[in-house]
């Protein structure tokens, strides 16, 4: 990969962009009630982090940040697999993916 | 451990073993074995005590100290669990184990129909163990352990028939009154430890002699007063005597063993043991003497009007204990001890005789319903008669010698006390013969049912009576007065016990001995008084006349005495009622209102807070997520700061 392409955009921009992306993810998780959309928002947060890691790694000339990104991707993939399975089970039980229905976890 | 040491160590261990077998195996040890085990261990102890005695004499009367183990040590103070065998402990050992075996034997017959047969023997053996610790211990702490142990056994045995509420109250009364005395004893021990740094008899007495304590030293007086409070509780002296008459709620063998012959004399043993301390505190001795004489007189007057066979004997015991303390008070330690021994003989005999009567009368104890038992209970009657003669001080039976020796010493000390003591002795003879005549003379006044069931007790019960009767007859010869014999065995035997006391306060022992003529005159006085009293009793009650009327017919002074001077009522209103009132205030206000409010308040606050906090847990996932995000933000913010 040509690191110079990444460096054509200033580092601040990456930071602002990642932060915006991460906040959108958080707000999405907090506001939306559909389990699938919440999942996507979680992915959004992960990707915001990945982007930031890549940017820093490029600017620092250190590959370990990018290695870390791969790990995050693997973990995210595993997490999505498990999470989607849960969502499917929820859907089978309640015929809905609305997170508001899952309010049994209380006193 | 030499053979002699083993013998001594086994003396208290055997009854403990008997207690463990009968106590732990209660209801599993077969009934035929319970009695033989219970009696056997005590009898074996008696045999060992005799053997220890003969070896002691063979060894030239040197005190023997047997160290079992070092119990604990704190700083420079270390406590040895050891036994001291000297003249005093041997005398007590023989009385305790000897009379103890007879009474154990008697119990086989007396308690045979009781469902708590095994339990009874277990308690009796435990009592023997504690009593032996008390008399054998070589320091005050071991004595105190035994002291508490006998108190516990007394409590257990008074309340032996624990389904009866009154009996339980009597047991509690005995225990609580003894606790008051025990506290005094304990304080005395603490002061002693502070002063001498040791509780071993030998060390304490050595320090007293070498420490140049002045006669009347304040610390020694304080120690002796505290010890005497203990003795007052255990030996039922005014003002702590009221528990003893109530203690008659226990089975009769218990009354004979614990509340007449052995435990109640522990106070006298303790004072004699501490004679070095007491001779250095003449004030205390004066108090001891007066308490003794007051007790003797007060109990004797109450005894005259009692109608319960055991109550008469109980007050008689209190009165005789008063005599013993009177003897100690005038410094006649040997005479006090002599009276302990002879009293053990005839008082045990009287109680066992009373038990035999009660047994024959189907548990009747009121002498107004007896009478004429002479023909049916020949052995009991004869032995009871012997005991009455002995306790009244008519020669040549045991009581005469010991009581006369006390009176002689009292006369040498103070004429006033002597007159009071003779007065008490007259009353003793009167109430004992009144009891004898009302019970055995005249005609039968009980129910038809009781009349048909009258029977002499079996041999296991009459044998102890006969043995004790013989002892009551000849027991006095161990201490013949100087007018009859130049050697008084008991006095010369106990002489070495007072060596230290003589070094500490020689003046105490330098009383001139009354002349032989004086001695004979005094003897004549006391014998005449006793005979006249007995005769008065005979003319009043001998023919079955003058049977005391119903309780309600008394009036005036007689009523006051009949009701025991209302001392129980007095204590009730001075101590018990205010204490109850205080307790009820503590219960209804402090406990119910204050303490409960605090305890429940803590619970309520926790509960109320949780009740509100649990609302936070809504079950809504978004809400949890929000909480999580806020949490992370807070953590990050805190880290940044």
How would you describe the overall organization of this protein?
Chain A has 107 residues and is mostly helical. Helices cover 78% and strands 0% of the residues of chain A. Chain A has one domain (3-97): Helix Hairpins (Orthogonal Bundle), CATH 1.10.287.3510. Chain A is elongated. In chain A, 13% of the residues are buried. Chain B has 641 residues and is mainly alpha-helical. In chain B, strands 1-2 form a two-stranded antiparallel ribbon. In chain B, a hairpin with a 2-residue loop joins strand 1 and strand 2. The longest helix of chain B has 47 residues, at 567-613. Chain B is globular, with a radius of gyration of 29 Å.
Please give a handful of descriptors for the protein shown.
heterodimer, A: 107 residues, mainly alpha, Helix Hairpins, 78% helix, 0% strand, B: 641 residues, 3 domains, two-stranded antiparallel ribbon, globular
What does the secondary structure layout of this molecule look like, with pairings?
The complex is a heterodimer of chains A (107) and B (641).
Chain A: H1 3-7, H2 11-31, H3 35-60, H4 64-94
Chain B: H1 3-24, H2 31-58, E1 64-74, E2 77-85, H3 87-110, H4 117-136, H5 140-158, H6 165-196, H7 201-210, H8 218-234, H9 243-246, H10 252-261, H11 266-273, H12 275-279, H13 282-304, H14 309-329, H15 333-360, H16 378-392, H17 398-413, H18 415-440, H19 448-453, H20 459-474, H21 489-494, H22 499-504, H23 516-541, H24 556-562, H25 567-613, H26 621-640
Antiparallel strand pairs in B: 1-2
Helix pairs in contact in B: 1-2, 1-4, 2-3, 2-4, 3-4, 3-10, 3-15, 3-20, 4-5, 5-6, 5-10, 6-8, 8-11, 8-13, 10-15, 11-15, 13-14, 13-18, 14-15, 14-17, 14-18, 15-16, 15-17, 15-20, 16-18, 16-20, 17-18, 17-23, 18-23
